[in-house]
């Protein structure tokens, strides 16, 4: 529904959550401005998966043609045991997923997905006014002298007024602080190595060729750590995420560069296929401390609201952080798109009512996977593996 009166929404943060919200709001006829602190709008060089819940939203935003050009589709999700690579469970994806959920399970390079959404925000032929984007624009203060016209103030003194301000500024959200929401940040004690391994190196070695013979989304479970890998850009890269106990240095600095050898060393004694794969990482291995947020329902105050990691940062142990931000974006646009400016506070409260409980459940489930994925060998691990076998193919996404 297009509102009878268009009004202005300012979004702090041009990540996947902020840009999806910008596009969804644009399509409802609202005038949107995105403020991004980075000098260039983009994403880290890594992969991302969208399960049907997020794919459905992106397709609903009219992005099918563009997503079909950039996605890679896994045929199954495979869960393997650390020591010998034995398959614990296998869930068919591909067509089986589309048949069951009427939406696909897709993988992308993050930069490609970000670019597709960004270009749709700026496409002059699209519905609604084109989104205005300001890079190198860091929001540090909020002026709410007129509560119905919040003003985002930048570190160089620029002022951006709008009828609504959305804080989509990530796990260390400044907007969250500025509306006085509780400090819910938690350190998980874990960190993630991320690497992109060229597919041609994988294909050239008989020890790793199996990785490109069948496109799969794979999780290896082991004591205190797990490993995720999948192909992106049609097999041009293998995306690897390796989650292990965090070092003090990474906990303090949040992000540090790492070497391929660090990655190999993090999985001592694992099945030979693991070091064979990880040793092919050539460059750009990054290591990131994993922070998340405690579940909390304070997402809005008057004409200001939070979205994505700013309100429900979660461990990446269900690959749902960006996907939940996309769900936020869709619901936010439905609510704001259905009211005139006088109805904004109520629309934002309805947005929170519709989203906070579900996102909180996904936060908790992701946290539970920290234990579930990392059992040492023994009775709990055997019970888990039996449970995975029983629920094979029964994901509810
Ligand atoms: P962000 O992506 O953090 O974007 C916030 C933006 O705000 C940034 O561009 C930042 O520069 C900007 N910003 C911050 N402060 C300011 C300021 N003061 N002024 C202006 N701009 C500001 N999720 C999935 O759905 N699928 C996956 O497969 C998946 N895999 C993951 C793997 C790993 C290893 C990790 C760590 C996470 C993964 N996630 C995944 C989670 C996902 O990356 C995040 O949940 C998602 O990026 C959050 O999006 P966001 O837009 O809320 O925040």
UniProtKB/TrEMBL annotation:
Domain of life of the organism encoding this protein: Bacteria
InterPro entries: FAD-bd (IPR002938), FAD-dep_Monooxygenase_BioMet (IPR050493), FAD/NAD-bd_sf (IPR036188)
Keyword rRNA-binding: no
SUPFAM superfamilies referenced in this protein's UniProt entry, alphabetically: FAD-linked reductases, C-terminal domain, FAD/NAD(P)-binding domain
Keyword terms, alphabetized: Monooxygenase, Oxidoreductase
Molecular function as annotated in GO: FAD binding; monooxygenase activity
Transmembrane helix in keyword set: no
Domain FAD-binding: 7-362
Protein name (database record): Fumarate reductase
Organism whose genome encodes this protein: Streptomyces noursei
């Amino acid at each position: 529904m297009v509102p009878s009166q268009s009004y202005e929404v300012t979004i702090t943060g041009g990540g996947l959550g902020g840009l999806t919200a910008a596009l969804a709001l644009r399509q409802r006829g609202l005038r949107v401005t995105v403020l991004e602190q980075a000098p260039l709008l983009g994403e880290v060089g890594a992969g991302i998966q969208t399960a049907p819940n997020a794919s459905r939203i992106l397709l609903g935003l009219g992005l099918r043609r563009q997503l079909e050009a950039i996605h890679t589709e896994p045929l199954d999700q495979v869960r393997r045991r650390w020591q010998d690579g034995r398959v614990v469970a296998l869930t068919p994806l591909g067509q089986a997923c589309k048949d069951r959920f009427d939406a696909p399970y897709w993988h992308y390079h993050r930069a490609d997905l970000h670019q597709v959404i960004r270009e749709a925000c700026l496409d002059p032929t699209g519905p609604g006014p084109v989104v205005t984007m300001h890079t190198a624009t860091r929001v540090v203060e909020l002026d709410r002298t007129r509560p119905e016209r919040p003003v985002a103030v930048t570190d160089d003194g620029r002022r951006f007024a709008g009828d609504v301000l959305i804080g989509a500024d990530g796990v260390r959200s400044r907007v969250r602080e500025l509306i006085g929401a509780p400090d819910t940040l938690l350190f998980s004690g874990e960190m993630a190595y991320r690497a992109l391994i060229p597919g041609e190196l994988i294909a050239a070695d008989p020890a790793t060729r199996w990785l490109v013979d069948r496109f799969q989304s794979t999780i290896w479970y082991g004591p205190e750590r797990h490993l995720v890998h999948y192909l992106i850009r049609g097999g041009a890269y293998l995306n690897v995420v390796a989650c292990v106990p965090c070092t003090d240095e990474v906990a303090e600095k949040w992000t540090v560069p790492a070497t391929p050898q660090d990655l190999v060393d993090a999985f001592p004694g694992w099945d030979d296929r693991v070091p064979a794969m990880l040793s092919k990482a050539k460059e750009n291995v990054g290591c990131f401390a994993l922070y998340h947020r405690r579940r909390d329902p304070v997402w809005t105050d008057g004409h200001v609201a939070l979205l994505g990691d700013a309100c429900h940062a979660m461990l990446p142990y269900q690959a749902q952080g960006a996907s939940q931000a996309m769900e936020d974006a869709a619901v936010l646009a439905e609510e704001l798109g259905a009211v005139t400016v006088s109805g904004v506070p109520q629309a934002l409260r309805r947005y929170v009512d519709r989203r906070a409980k579900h996102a909180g459940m996904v936060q908790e489930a992701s946290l539970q996977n920290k234990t579930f994925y990392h059992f040492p060998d023994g009775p709990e691990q055997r019970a888990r593996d039996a449970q995975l076998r029983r629920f094979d193919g029964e994901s509810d996404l």
